[in-house]
Amino acid sequence: MSDLSSAKKFILTSFKFNGLSIRSDACEYFASQLAPLEEQERDEWLDKVVDYIQRQSLNTPFVEKGLIESAILVYLDCCKSETEENITILNVISAFEIPHFIYNIDRKKFLPQPTKQLDLFGSPDSKCHMFRERYTVLKQRTLRHELFSVGQQFQLQPVEYLLSHGGNINRVIVLGMLTQLKENRFYIEDPSGCVPLDLSQTNYHTGFFTESSFVLVEGNYKDKILHVQALGFPPPENAEISRIYFGCNNIFGGLDELNVKSSEKLKKIEESNSEAMIIFISDIWLDQHKVVEKLKVLFGGYDDFPPTAMVLMGNFLSSKEGSQLSSMLKAKMKQLADLLAQYRNLITNTKIIIVPGPADCLAANILPRPAFISYITEDLKKQIPNIEFATNPCRIQYCTQEIVVIREDIVTKLCRNCVHFPTTDDIPDHFAKTVVAQAHLAPLPPCVCPVYWDHDHALRLYPLPDLVVVADQMKAFTTSHMNCSIINPGSFSKGEFGFKVYYPSSKTVEDSQIPEDND
What we know:
Elements: H1 2-17, E1 21-22, H2 24-34, H3 39-54, E2 62-63, H4 65-83, E3 90-93, E4 101-104, E5 109-112, H5 126-144, E6 156-157, H6 159-163, E7 169-182, E8 185-190, E9 193-198, E10 203-204, E11 214-222, E12 225-232, H7 239-244, H8 264-272, E13 278-282, H9 289-303, E14 309-313, H10 325-340, H11 344-349, E15 351-355, H12 374-383, E16 387-389, E17 394-398, E18 401-407, H13 410-417, H14 427-438, E19 467-471, E20 477-481, E21 484-488, E22 498-503, E23 508-513
Parallel strand pairs: 1-2, 6-7, 9-12, 10-12, 13-14, 14-15, 15-16, 18-19, 19-21
Antiparallel strand pairs: 3-17, 4-5, 7-8, 7-11, 8-9, 11-12, 13-22, 17-18, 20-21, 22-23
Helix pairs in contact: 1-2, 2-4, 3-4, 10-12
């Protein structure tokens, strides 16, 4: 009885400390589970259960018995999974299966949202929620930065502060969305309102500033116009800091319930396999004879030393085929299947991942795009069992590495639609700082790069992954920002048959190319 009583007291104290109240029957049940345990093990169980409860969307602070039972079952499953021998080394994650987390302002942490039935077309409110979520993610990140935290030199003000002020304001900083509500007239907008901008004397920081991107505006408010002195992006944040506000949740997606970054077993496998590599190839025109010949050289070269995975990205045809697109793609995918089937060692030991390009998809030109339909891929599935057809974008988890892949001309579109083109020619650096600061793969106006509103979180880059692969038609590049590598393999068919090789154990990227003398 003494052990049971002390367990009850321990539970009540711990729950009260965390702002929770536990029902008497729930406390009785939980105490009966904790009483036989040693003190150290009891502490561990209690911490895990409380953490699980805090991650739930509770309407009241009162914890029922059913929730305690669910928490204990989840903890037991986690313990069991840690001891299993078979663990997932490589995981390809669909854009429509990525967990959705929303920042809770009161609790200052991200909470998971209930899984919805797959529905591409959201309600009329979905578009507002999409931009509001983007704003909330960036605002909470900005307020934590050393420049904006309490007592520091800068203070962030909402738009309503300007609108409610009777006179002029010198040196004010506002975070909001850059938008063009009237032709040739830009505004800064946040959930509290909007105010017109004067950009005639603006000093632009590094990056591509487009409509619908979120910016920090510094300037003087005069005559109901914000005269902008400097325009920059919200400060970025390292992934290690961002993950603190998600707890141990798996925010990247995949089979594991917990974040794979915390798996010591996966980390050891990753570090010990120094020869593991992932190949990224974009724009593979299967209707061009020379491209197919170069693929033979590529597959033959890797047959003796097969990589861990090979990501083949579209477009898979050199021209749009109109009504004949599906039949032409089916024929060329069969040709690819016949070609791969010649290299048994490669297809046995390498995961082949197929990502459709913008011109390959039979669905609407809206992100995220679904994978190829089975009619097109059935021949590949029959001959190549170790193959996966991914959405665009998709995510790849290799051991503890998190990789985001998208086949879209994002760099090109940012260059064409920016309000002010950068004065320096370092396009990769501008691009990297833009997507990292925006925490989004496509910070573009919806008319330029449409996104399904309810699936916008699938394009989110927060926390930052280890590698972002943006397959664009422009010249290949490799760069990094905030410990996140960002690469563009370039066009395999239009360029000089180049591609990228990523080594997860060292987080290095290697430029590779099929030489011309192999014709």
